[in-house]
User: Fold these one by one.
Assistant:
Number 1:
Amino acid sequence: MRTPSLLAIAVLFASTAGAQSPAARGRLSAHWEELTAADFREAITRAQGTCLLPFGIMEKHGPHLPLGNDLLNVRYAALHAAEQEYAVVFPEYYFGQIFEAKHEPGTVAYSRGLQLQLLQETTDEMARNGCKKIVIVNGHGGNGSLLPYFAQTQLEAPHDYVVYVQGLPPSGPGEPKHRSNPATDMHAGESETSTSMIARADLVHLERASQESGADQARVKLPDGLYTGIWWYARFPNHYAGEGAVASRELGEFETKAWINAIVQAIRAVKADQESLRLQNEFYERSKHPLDTPQ
Ligand SMILES: [Zn+2]
């Protein structure tokens, strides 16, 4: 690499590359916070206005996983998906529903009103910056009611963007056999711990996973379909559900790949979706004068 001709080529390449846009060079980061203002504009164009909001949480994850486990895992999956199908990825976001873990150290539980207001202002700000298709990628089970509700409430008043919610992917065909009971493998158990072994193996303390019980204590007995907020604490007071100790990299690789895949498919589907915004606009318009809606 010391020959003059190679150096000349390198200099020529560098000067040509300098004249090109980052997108043309294919080196545009997917991380919102890593882009310059000018590159951001290009990133939005390249993403066709599609942005991801990976949604984590700060809560106990059994005796063996980090507080930010969901945030770390969801960002790992979302950023890898954006490598395959470009989208702009919003910075760390963990302001979700986690009241049921307020009795455990390290939990950050924002109030109900603030959760909704902050999420609304975040998506509004994303849209003001060109993210007209926002995919909230959920990484936290406790957001399972919040996020569809948030998406539903986008119909309350007109928005010039669409909110989509990508949930945790269901297990797919070919999944390695689980060693624990899938019915209670819900929080810091075999599946989640396996996924963490791929995203951040250095933060998984597998040897501590049996220090507490993740068994279902089933302390409240109610018929199916009858809901009460204390249900989770009634079943899993250690904020641990399942058996993290039997986690494996093999299962983690499978589940992480399936998750990344699901997000890639979501990005592609959202980019192709021209109907949602059109129908939203039609709906908002008709909502202003419902008596004129054809019957
Ligand atoms: Zn979790």
Number 2:
Amino acid sequence: MTPDRPPSAPTAAGLEAVSCPLCGPAPGAALQHRFSPFAVVACRGCGLKFLSPRLPEAEVLKLYQAESYYQAGGVGPGYDDYRQARANWHKTFEARLAAIRAWQPAGRALDVGCGPGYFMEVAARQGYEVWGVDVSDYGRRLARASFGDRVLAGTLEQAPLEPQSFDLLTAFDTFEHLYTPLSFLSKARDLLRPGGLLVITTPNARSWLARVSGRRWVSFKIPEHVFFWSPSTIRRALGDQYRIVTIESAGQYTSVEFLVRRSLGLRGAAASRLQAVAGRLGQVNVWMDNGSMTVMAQRI
Ligand SMILES: [Zn+2]
């Protein structure tokens, strides 16, 4: 399949400068890394890193509509061979669900940013009643093939769902994309029953991988990642609406071929040649610390 041409890079015009959602504009923010015309800055008050200036939200939402976002093959924004990596996502989500089951072993689950529905598939197999919500038409179309009307369009805040109707709310590799993370957390609290579990996996700006990688950190996916949380900043964001259960480093299963391709920065024809040469080695899958963290918190 030939992917659509990935969306082109934006110009400097029309970007928006933002201040820390936890502290407001008063403390100011210090430049960390330039990704012209964007920049990653750190709040001088709490240390939260975020993209400023950034695209307006309506612009970045457009990026997620196309299949090319999921199949960009390492060129521009997108998730590398997302569908081909389905088996690895299943294994990754099975491992994450094993940790979740210790705290919330059953019930109604809502996956925010469900994409093609890989976590939904794993959770359904384990007996949860699963729902999903996603801003991407493409991701939703795939998830709806299995889950029909339980896959809702739009953001969590827009989803027409009953208050206090879920036991589990998950957001994997989604929170860093959110323009209004505090309103997300308060909507999630509305939807969870008291004692219900919120699970967020997001890049950890204080992780070993982030610190040794500097500007080249794989989670600086610009312009679509707009916040780079850490255990201390996400703790502040959760505030007194949640009781934090655990904050642990997250990982994922990935193929050796993918790791080599990424670390060498191979694209296009060079990447295809590696895939051909790697052969069976490319099929070997490994567990990788990806510099992300998983936060589990109970709704109070
Ligand atoms: Zn701050």
